[in-house]
């Protein structure tokens, strides 16, 4: 056959091409049919669940695990379609498996031998990067991260402000200026340095194990509420790392927090700008001390204006935290895995 006729001939009419095209179309048809019948397996979107989502907590974050097998998310928090369990024998039925970092320290030998198809593993931690060790061994292991960071998969803060239009301001009676509850005092920490220098200019009432003045379980809030100001100093400074020192020890107690942690702008993403004092607001600790000691009653009351609009919600029950996985599940990136968990968490 002349060469010109080959060039002008339709490609599907050439020898051998027709068979290849036909086979390709058939493969494409089979793939589209497979995706249609099982869309969740071939998509980064969450598969639609007709049965309750089974969330297995491999080991409970705290030492004493409650009996959580059942529909506790609906019973306690009104979250339907979420079955929570700690029974490891149900691994084969679990859609999500939760691994608290505090329980991972012994090593991989305590994890399941393999991740089942379609199953997602969640790494959980409320500690800052400074206090989270041995992350390098968990590369290419977890699909999702659950911690205090807002830019992650599942956000679990220590606390938050919730709308409450009570229009009531409650300021407990004050008997001293500044207090601080500290259990683990390390001189190398920035908060220890700031406290040492600040105490040169004013007296700080210290409680907790570090000062050999431990408080009973129900004594914390009544004690800190007697102070005008509370040193809500974090043990390390990281983005979004704002703990119960702010939410419980200070705001819930009815005292004004003097914070040491991430920048002011980061705090203002959680609480109103006029509800706290940041150490960085002042050129020196001497200026901070003078500001605290000379504040008049009218200025002090302004720090509690947030109470007219909000109240504090604490997250203390791990069952509530784990149940949030079910609410987040449809929007989570399915098929994703963290290649370098340590590098990401330290960013």
UniProtKB/TrEMBL annotation:
PANTHER family: ALPHA- 1,3 -FUCOSYLTRANSFERASE, ALPHA-(1,3)-FUCOSYLTRANSFERASE 7. This is Fucosyltransferase. The keyword Transferase applies. Gene3D superfamilies: Glycosyl transferase family 10, C-terminal domain (3.40.50.11660). Belongs to the glycosyltransferase 10 family. Pfam families: Glyco_tran_10_N, Glyco_transf_10. SUPFAM superfamilies: UDP-Glycosyltransferase/glycogen phosphorylase. Pathway: Protein modification; protein glycosylation. Its EC number is 2.4.1.-. It catalyses: an N-acetyl-alpha-neuraminyl-(2->3)-beta-D-galactosyl-(1->4)-N-acetyl-beta-D-glucosaminyl derivative + GDP-beta-L-fucose = an alpha-Neu5Ac-(2->3)-beta-D-Gal-(1->4)-[alpha-L-Fuc-(1->3)]-beta-D-GlcNAc derivative + GDP + H(+). InterPro entries: Glyco_tran_10_C (IPR055270), Glyco_tran_10_N (IPR031481), Glyco_trans_10 (IPR001503), GT10-like_C_sf (IPR038577). One of its GO terms (molecular function) is alpha-(1->3)-fucosyltransferase activity. It is a single-pass type II membrane protein; Single-pass membrane protein. The keyword Transcription does not apply. One of its GO terms (cellular component) is Golgi cisterna membrane.
């Amino acid at each position: 056959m002349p060469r010109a006729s080959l060039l002008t001939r339709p490609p599907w009419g050439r020898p051998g091409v027709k068979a290849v095209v036909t086979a390709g179309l058939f493969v494409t048809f089979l793939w589209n049919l497979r995706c249609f019948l099982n869309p969740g397996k071939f998509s980064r979107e969450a598969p639609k669940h007709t049965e309750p989502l089974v969330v297995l907590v491999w080991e409970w974050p705290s030492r004493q695990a409650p009996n959580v097998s059942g529909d506790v998310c609906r019973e306690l928090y009104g979250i339907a379609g979420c079955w929570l369990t700690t029974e490891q024998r149900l691994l084969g039925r679990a859609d999500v498996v939760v691994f608290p970092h505090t329980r991972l320290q012994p090593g991989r030998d305590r994890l399941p031998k393999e991740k089942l198809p379609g199953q997602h593993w969640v790494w959980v931690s409320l500690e800052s990067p400074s206090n989270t060790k041995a992350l390098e061994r968990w590369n290419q292991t977890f699909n999702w991260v659950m911690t205090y960071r807002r830019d992650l998969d599942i956000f679990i803060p220590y606390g938050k402000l919730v709308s409450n239009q009570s229009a009531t301001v409650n300021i407990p009676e004050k008997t001293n200026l500044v207090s601080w509850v500290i259990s683990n005092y390390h001189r190398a920490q920035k908060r220890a340095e700031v406290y040492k220098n600040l105490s040169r200019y004013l007296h700080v009432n210290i409680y907790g194990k570090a000062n050999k003045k431990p408080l009973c379980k129900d004594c914390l809030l009544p004690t800190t509420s007697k102070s005008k100001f509370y040193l809500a100093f974090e043990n390390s400074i990281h983005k979004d790392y704002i703990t119960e020192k702010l939410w419980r020890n200070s705001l819930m107690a009815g005292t004004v927090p003097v914070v040491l942690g991430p920048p002011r702008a980061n705090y203002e993403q959680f609480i109103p700008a006029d509800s706290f004092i940041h150490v960085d607001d002042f050129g020196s600790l001497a200026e901070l001390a003078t500001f605290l000691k000379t504040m008049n009653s009218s200025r002090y009351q302004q720090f509690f204006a947030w109470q007219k609009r909000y109240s504090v919600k604490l997250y203390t029950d791990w069952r509530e935290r784990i149940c949030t996985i079910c609410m987040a599940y449809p929007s989570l990136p399915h098929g994703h895995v963290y290649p370098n968990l340590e590098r990401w968490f330290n960013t």
